[in-house]
Please model this.
Amino acid sequence: MSTNELNSHLNSFDRPQNFNDQAWTNLLEQSRTVWNKFLSGEDWKESLNIPCKEAYLMLVNTEGELIVKDDSLLNYVKNEHVKTWIKRVEEIAFKSLRDKRYEIAERYFGKLIKLDGGNAMHYYRRALVRKQLMNHKASLTDLSEAITLNPNVSSYYKHRAEVFRLLDVDHKAMSDLNKAIKLNPSESSLYELRGKFRLSLGDRAGGRLDLLRSEELKNDTDGLNEMNKAA
Model:
């Protein structure tokens, strides 16, 4: 991280209403000192006063990891405080998504990743937002991170396959569709998607088989629903 990138990161936070200018300046300087130590490859070994959520988030890197050890933090109850903040940020992110304000949704899903970087769903949801924004490479990066965190969710592979197709990386798209079907072999939409993809590649036999399988699964589901209604 360059000096300009560090300044941009620190200046992206708003001063809390209960902080005067001097207190906020001191907090920014504390964070800058810790970052400079971290960027030089040294461990921070002193205690830090963390009086607000901003002070904590300033010390979180782009991968959502804290750059100091937890035992360096004073006056900060991480679990409850972060849970409350996550809930509020989620509300804003989902409302922005519903309102199709994708730039705002992307920003707030990014904040969620900073708060809870081990949650694969945050990366997945930001990936879908970035796809709407036509930022396919960034969407691909998020989907790959979601898969790294939780490799057993078929929808992650399905959407990554769609992004690979948009980027004309056909062999990886097919590989992901195969993985998605292996994880969820009864999902008709996966066979339909793979079938259409195969047809576009000139594989008529394979494409027709997938589309046929998709129809069979749809009919099975429709039949089961009718039985449930009649019961």
Summary: The chain has a mean pLDDT of 86. Residues 47 and 87 are 28 Å apart (CA to CA). The two ends are 63 Å apart (CA to CA).
